[in-house]
Amino acid sequence: RQRRGLPGRAAAWAAMATVPGVTERYFTRWYKPDVKSNPCEDHCILQHSNRICVVVLADAHPLLRKGKTVERISYQISANCSRLQNKVSGKSKRGAQFLTELAPLCRIFCSDGEEFTIYSCIRGRLIEVNERILTNPSLLQQKPFTEGYIAVVLPKFEESKSVTQGLLTRKEYEEVLSKRFNSTSDDLVLQTADNNTEKNEIFHS
């Protein structure tokens, strides 16, 4: 498996993000809302001080908020590229696939026919993908910040501080959610008012 090729310390920190409670103590959360202009398709990056980053679904992603049923997950992002083929060895992470911010990591297929693509959101080398979610897709929703993670990415050393530029802090993300949900609530109120007006017009006609 991919983790065997990792140096012991890197493997330990990569595994750390899968332990409940540890993410809050040792990882900083960064958020990317509306990835690729797709409304509400928010991603989250868990960043450790040693540069290791873990890509997970953000709190308000439709897969979590709407409770969709996941049928399958695929790391095959094109005919010639599979994230499962990523091979990592040595301290220099030889063989690791290099990712840009908009590099797709996997595709998630739902029972209602909807499909979601999860992106890296940061530049770096792909250290590993989470093969457990292939056989147990429910981990994505049951434990999104621990055992249901998508992938582990290691940014370049010289980019370790700048790699989160363009991402939001947790507080900034909460502000985005507040505005988003308030806007949704306003839309629902207006829609309800329009429906009531329409009913009254029908009643009095």
Can you give keywords for this protein?
single chain, 205 residues, alpha+beta, 11 strands, disordered N terminus
Write the layout of secondary structure elements.
Layout: H1 8-16, H2 22-26, E1 27-32, E2 43-48, E3 53-57, H3 62-65, E4 70-74, E5 76-78, E6 81-82, E7 98-99, E8 104-110, E9 115-119, E10 124-129, H4 132-135, H5 139-142, E11 151-154, H6 170-204
Antiparallel strand pairs: 1-2, 2-3, 3-11, 4-8, 5-6, 7-10, 8-9, 10-11
Folded structure, characterized:
The chain is α+β, with helices and mostly antiparallel strands and about 200 residues long. Helices cover about 30% and strands about 25% of the residues. The protein is built from six helices and eleven strands.
Largest sheet features: 6 strands, antiparallel
What spatial form do the alpha-carbon principal axes imply? globular
Low-pLDDT parts are: 1-13, 186-205
Q: Treating each run of at least 4 consecutive H or I residues as one helix, how many helices?
A: 6
Q: Numbering strands along the chain, what is their spatial order in the largest sheet?
A: 1-2-3-11-10-7
Structural class label: alpha+beta
Helix content: 25-40%
Percent of residues in beta strands: 15-25%
- State the end-to-end distance: 71 Å
SSE sequence, one letter per element? HHEEEHEEEEEEEHHEH
Q: What's the rounded overall pLDDT mean?
A: 81
Radius of gyration: 20 Å
